[in-house]
Amino acid sequence: MALVLFIVFTLFLQGAFGEIICEELPVGMCSFSIASSGKRCVLENYESNNGVIGFQCVTSEIVVKGMWEMIESDECTNACGVDRKSIGISSDSLLDPKLTTKICSTECYENCPNIVDLYYNLALGEGVYLADLCKVQRTMPRRAMSQVLSSGAASNGPISSVSLGVDRAEAPM
Fold this sequence. Notes:
Layout: H1 2-17, E1 33-34, E2 39-47, E3 53-63, E4 70-71, H2 74-80, H3 97-104, H4 106-109, H5 113-125, H6 130-139, H7 141-149
Antiparallel strand pairs: 1-4, 2-3
Helix pairs in contact: 3-6, 6-7
């Protein structure tokens, strides 16, 4: 109950002041949030002077085009299978078939543009278009993993027929 009140109060303050500053977000709301500046918030760990490991929310240098002042909903984090307590997000997570299935699900892919944009860019960094990865995931789940493992390079076999040249306009934002 206290967490619900805290979230409501935080959202109220956000609306009242109209600004999200990553460093002011509670740790549990940091990941998958976007500051008023349009930069992603990221959860990092640190070691205090007495050796205790703690967590803090910081502003990254990653600018999200067309999105700002956003704290991802619990519905989206659940639908997309992501964890708010994630420290750093890597393209390696796309190798997890459970996560890829969740990201590519209609509930996530069509309703959670912030998370989809993040994973779109992670996949793109590996030379893979998320839209194509999801298409393969829906029809040939085992092939989707080989597409990521090959960093998008065409391989011998059926995966080579999958187009990797999707126009960014076709991909969700």
